[in-house]
Amino acid sequence: MSTTSFIATPRATAAERSQSEVMRRAARRSRYLSNTAAAIFSCGLVIWTLLPIYNIMMVSFEGHSDVFSGAIWPPDPSASGYWVVLTEGYWYLQNFWHQFGNSVYVGAATTFLTLLIASAASFSISRLRINHGWVISNAALMTYVIPASFLAIPFYRIMQNYGMTNNLWSVIAAMVTFATPYAMFIFQQYGRSIPIELDESARIDGASPIQIYLRIYLPLMAPALVAVGTYALLLAWNEYLYQFLMLSDKRAMTVPVALASFLNSDEAPWNYMMATAVVYALPPVIIYYWFRRRMTAGLTMGGVKG
Amino acid sequence: MADVLQTTQVLPAQALALKGKARFWRGHLQGSEYAWAIAFCVPYIAIFLAFVIYPVAFGIWMGSEPSLYTTLFSDPIYLETVLNTAIYLGVAINVKMFCALLLSGFFMRPGWWNKALLMVFVLPWAVPSLPFFISIHWMLNGEYGMLNNLLYDLFHINAPDWLTSRWTAFGSAMLSHVWKWMPFWTVILLAGRMAIPSEIKDAAKVDGATGLRSFIHISFPLLANLYLICTLLSTIFSLGDFNSVYFVTGGGPADSTHVLATLGIRYAFDLAQPRLGVAAVISALPLLVPLVIILMRKFRTSQVQL
What we know:
The structure holds two protein chains of two kinds.
Chain A: H1 2-7, H2 14-60, H3 80-86, H4 96-127, H5 133-144, H6 152-161, H7 168-191, H8 197-204, H9 209-220, H10 222-238, H11 241-246, H12 255-263, H13 270-290, H14 292-301
Helix pairs in contact in A: 2-13, 3-13, 4-5, 4-7, 4-10, 5-7, 7-10, 8-9, 10-14, 12-13
Chain B: H1 2-19, H2 21-27, H3 31-62, H4 66-73, H5 76-106, H6 112-121, H7 123-126, H8 129-139, H9 146-155, H10 166-194, H11 198-206, H12 211-239, H13 243-248, H14 260-270, H15 274-282, H16 285-305
């Protein structure tokens, strides 16, 4: 700071002034160049990001026969595809709203159970400090790093043995299993910021552990609960493999399974498929942008903090 | 005066009590409180035993026959798959992570334009993967797909049919994976960069380190641990990545673009040989287990640093 004020004294000579003018011009030019490069790069990035999204939107607005026309803009754009999806007006879409309800049910149940089970376990480990709690934490962390698709085959066989296929609860069980480890990790990281003296003073006032859990722990954990709840909801909503393996009956299917089963039909109705896909993708996108800040905070709070 | 002295003498004692908090607390964890602590943990332990330990044990039992592995290694598709998986992990993951690292630096630039760009850029992460991979599959269709029509209309290029030869198909699957997951890792690394105190960079700037030098000597050493953890996590997650290969190429042409996750499902459900499917998955353990051990160790050391 002091050096700048020293240079900026009015006693600078003409030569010094012209030199500083040259430097300023060079700086301006380099800033201009870097801004142009950034703008070009941004355009490339936008095209890269939006190309598949544009494709899905374009096909969903096309007519049934236009799909095979090879156009890059719908020749006759209409929202009839969406209307067909929303009114279940195509034989593949007969159960659309039922399947959508299944997806909502799986998402809601997964979110609720994940929050309940993970917060209770984290409370026991990090607040009540149960003996050997670290064993449970490490077991959860191990589960977090097992790829879910690797357990799919034995999981399917077990559910088959118990006659649980075509039952939404088999999927919910799988989703809760794979969402709780991350949830516990976040809860334990976040819980460190809540002073344990609060629990102690409540205990001295005669609160039982369940009261501490309900009245102190959960309210103070609200930001982490929101972040993890969003995560669990999106995990269950976006998952495909387990839902595909467990749910084969048309009435028990969720939307992604039904959507993928379109692919196996002889003439895939691409415009209806893409319209279904857009309807299915809207809720997570809205939820994501709604909770974006909290989710990002949650991810950096625990997940992969270095 | 005596009062003041007494309080100052009590304070260190309190601090000691706080330091020995764990012991103090556990010492008092008796009777009903102990029962509560166990009760809070039981749901998670039950889930862990029923849906992690049981399937893992069941899977190991299913894949315990040595003859399965001789069948596996004599299958040329399996050998191709191993090569594919190695390329997938070696190339796609590193390209994705390195681009994410560079992009996170790009998004550090100030201005509302960059924030808006980031909002668009994270869209692939927010949308469910399945419909968008189906859309990419259709977009890459040689005759009707949008990409080739676009290339022809704009540049008069007759692009190849991407999904009918092995390497273009597999490259498409890898790029789809990068499209879907690069935003996530960019956000994580961006958060890591933002956590670097700006004073360090300012000090380096005063010493003349800008641009590349600032990145090599300041940002990268501080980000290195995070970057390594992210890469390990991403490698493990991608080992179980099912959707991008299954929906973009479907394993085709002629089952030449499978990865272990999709091949296991193919053996188990298309060819009705679940044991062989489990064996294919188990054959990834020699890679998975060391990665998990390194990652767990990294997690622990970085937690100490926090």
